[in-house]
Amino acid sequence: MTKVLYPGSFDPLTKGHMNIIKQAYELFDEVIIAVLQNPLKTSGLLTIEERMEIIKNIYQKTNNVKVITANGAAVDIALLYECKAIIRGLRSLSDYDYEVKLQQINKEISNNKVNTICLFADKEYQFVSSSMVKEILNLNKDISKYVDPIVKEKMLIKKRS
């Protein structure tokens, strides 16, 4: 069984993320989505628990997708869950430059046990990011094109509170 880890903050989960998840679950036996807190961001819109609930709800009928949360480096989580690789989504050349450096570090840290596999978002999602979705929401514009209805509903509730 080939397991892969797809780590991220997913604050919020976008259709771009979902596109990468779909590609991954069609290629691998099991995709473990690790909802993590980005240490470079002081706060998010959704709590980790809310993000996990949303993702579990969206993928409840997808047998080979598992949702977890953990602390620490993604490579350590991949080793803990016996994943052969970490999935990374690419949108642009700047993503590529960052991911090349990260994969080299992860491979070294894991003693060559964990690879990185980059999947390219389909063209309609290459510009979609969680930050962009939050900005559009803050401008009181419709985010339906960028997120699942479950995500949109949760984000609108959070914005009102």
Summarize the structure in words.
Strand 4 (85-90), helix 4 (93-109) and strand 5 (115-120) form a beta-alpha-beta unit. The N and C termini lie far apart (43 Å). By secondary structure, the chain is an alpha/beta fold. The chain has a five-stranded parallel sheet, with helices on both faces. It has helices spanning 15-27, 48-58, 74-80, 93-109, 130-138, 149-160, and strands at 3-8, 30-35, 65-69, 85-90, 115-120. The model has no long low-confidence stretch (mean pLDDT 94). It has one domain: Rossmann fold. The chain contains six helices and five strands, in the order βαβαβαβαβαα.
Question: What's the topology here?
Answer:
Layout: E1 3-8, H1 15-27, E2 30-35, H2 48-58, E3 65-69, H3 74-80, E4 85-90, H4 93-109, E5 115-120, H5 130-138, H6 149-160
Parallel strand pairs: 1-2, 1-4, 2-3, 4-5
Number of strands: 5
The low-confidence parts are: none
Query: Could you give the distance between the termini?
Result: 43 Å
Overall shape: it is globular
Number of helices: 6
CATH topology: Rossmann fold
Strand content: 15-25%
Please tell me how large the radius of gyration is. Answer: 15 Å
Count of separate structural domains: 1
**CATH C-level name:** Alpha Beta
Amount of helix: 40-55%
Strand count, sense and barrel status of the largest sheet are:
5 strands, parallel
Can you write the helix and strand succession as a string?
EHEHEHEHEHH
Mean pLDDT: 94
CATH homologous superfamily grouping: HUPs
**Secondary-structure-derived class:** alpha/beta
Quick structural gist:
With 161 residues, the chain is α/β, with parallel strands linked by helices. It is 43% helix and 18% strand.
